[in-house]
Design goal:
CATH architecture of the largest domain: Beta Barrel
Number of helices: 12
Radius of gyration: 29 Å
Shape: globular
Bound molecules: zinc ion
CATH superfamily of the largest domain: Nucleic acid-binding proteins
Largest sheet: 6 strands, antiparallel
CATH class of the largest domain: Mainly Beta
Distance between the termini: 72 Å
Length: 488
């Protein structure tokens, strides 16, 4: 399907939107003070080996040490999934203080450090270069057998490929002449030599290679045959992109456009609203149903709801239609929100087996378009669809939001009523230990309102029983759950 790529450049932030028929499909945000580290290559130093976990911590110059597992130390790319080699002990592969070249495969998330691997790779537009590997492979996204064969021959025509180093043909290689791929292979080898040289001259920890900035990464990774237009709103970046595109993707050079209008780029494509919606829990569907998308630390869940009224007539048909719409909407939501890890989908129960199959088929088709690897693992007894999506980057919500300070991310806070009862208990607790004082209750407006209204009788009784004056003070800076009982 035809695609447009919009690149919005602000002072310290670059945002890239991929749209299809006006609908936002993917959004990338890069801020200059928090550029991601996935893809970066470091000369690191082994800090500590954890034999029990078959893992090690690696100092790579970040505040939080990187984490490496024994499986990250073996080049798994040359082995097939059902033919896994027996794993050696990590103690036999690494020792403390050893210097190793590592590449980040996952951003640090929360308290977890970045995940590292020693199977290094460098991506260019058509190839992934695997230094020291013997693997020759074709992107799984290319399904046509004939194309796969042609690409394999092309890779094998690179001198010493598979012996000296490995290569994987990326999806974009499908649309290009063999000599261009060969040229890229040469460039990648030269580039790798320069990284190696740098590594010899530097002490660990040191960064050896930093992945491209977002605006160039977009050109390298996102442009496909479907790309109709690439619009950028900064002249300086436009110049850089023009060079890059003429050098590496000349057949798409005419797609690149500079936009110098005053109106913000994303506004004119209605992108800002769509970004807001991608942060909402509830996603309305045209059929009247809606999705509820929630992310917890362990997994994400997507619940399909029929929404309000369902006619009694053709109940199964109505449900089927909502589920179908959900099945085609979910892959887009996953991409847009950049959700990863385990994802549980709860469709509305259907009885008709054909309908069930059809819903799953549509879901599978949508997931195939994803640039990130997705897998439907199974359908549970309760009709839940379990799937995984590879997680390398943080979610959109993580990138743009923080936990709500009122509830700390729980999504719920104690009611004013609950707080009033806590206040009563606190008063009783305090007056057991102290002589007679007057008492000042400091709390948020809704709590004080309640104490003066619904709970006024209770306050009165308490005041008599304890023989104290109780006074009130609204603290506008307090959250609903915050209060103080002060003896005066
Ligand atoms: Zn909250």
């Amino acid at each position: 399907m035809d695609e447009e790529i919009l690149i919005n450049v602000a002072q310290r932030e670059t945002r890239v939107a991929v749209i299809e028929q006006g609908l936002l499909q993917q959004i990338f945000v890069e801020r200059s003070d928090s550029r991601g580290i996935v893809g970066n290559i470091y000369k690191g130093k082994v800090l500590r080996i954890l034999p029990g976990l078959q893992s090690a911590f690696v100092d790579f110059g970040h505040s939080k040490a990187g984490f490496i597992h024994v499986t990250d130390l073996i080049d798994m790319r040359a082995t097939s999934e059902d033919d896994l080699p027996e794993l050696p002990r990590i103690e036999s592969l690494l020792r403390e203080n050893q210097e190793i070249l590592v590449q980040a495969t996952k951003e640090p998330i929360g308290t977890k450090g970045a995940r590292m691997t020693t199977s290094l790779s460098l991506a260019s537009r058509y190839l992934v270069y695997l230094p020291g590997s013997t693997h020759i492979g074709i992107s799984q996204k290319i399904e046509d057998e004939k194309t796969r064969d042609e690409l394999r021959h092309m890779l094998e025509s690179i001198p010493e490929a598979g012996q000296r180093d490995g290569f994987i043909a990326r999806t974009a290689a499908e649309m290009v002449q063999p000599h261009e791929v060969l040229r890229e292979a040469e460039l990648l080898r030269k580039f790798w030599t320069s990284i190696n040289q740098k590594s010899k001259n530097l002490n660990a920890p040191a960064i050896l290679y930093e992945d491209l900035p977002l605006h160039l990464k977009v050109l390298r990774d996102l442009i496909s045959q479907n790309t109709q237009e690439i619009v950028v709103d900064s002249r300086a970046i436009y110049e850089k992109l023009s060079h890059f595109i003429r050098d590496f993707i000349p057949q798409k050079a005419e797609c690149l456009k500079l936009r110098e209008e005053q109106a913000p780029l994303f506004d004119s494509y209605n992108i800002e609203d769509q970004i807001q919606n991608a942060l909402e829990t509830k996603v309305p569907l045209k059929s009247g149903g809606y999705l509820v998308i929630e992310q917890t630390e362990a997994m994400a869940t997507i619940d399909v709801n029929s929404g309000g009224f369902i006619g009694r007539k053709d109940l199964e048909e109505t449900i089927y239609r909502i589920n179908l719409e959900a099945a085609s909407a979910i892959p887009r939501q996953l991409r847009l929100r950049n959700m990863g890890g385990i994802i549980i989908l709860d469709f509305i129960d259907m009885f008709n087996e054909d309908n069930k199959r059809q819903v799953l088929r549509i879901l599978g088709k949508g997931l195939q378009q994803d640039r990130v690897k997705c897998r439907i693992t199974e359908i549970s007894e309760l009709g839940l669809v379990e799937m995984t999506r590879k997680r390398a980057y943080e979610t959109l919500a993580n990138r743009l939001c923080e936990l709500c300070p009122s509830c700390g991310g729980k999504g719920i806070i104690r009611t004013a009523e609950t707080i009033c009862y806590e206040i009563f208990r606190e008063i009783q607790r305090k007056y057991r230990d102290f002589d007679r004082h007057d008492c000042l209750i400091m709390a948020a407006q809704p709590v004080i309102d309640r104490l003066l209204d619904e709970d006024a009788a209770a306050v009165n009784e308490l005041s008599k029983a304890m023989d104290v004056d109780i006074r009130f003070q609204v603290e506008i800076t307090y959250s609903q759950e915050q209060f103080d009982v002060v003896l005066i």
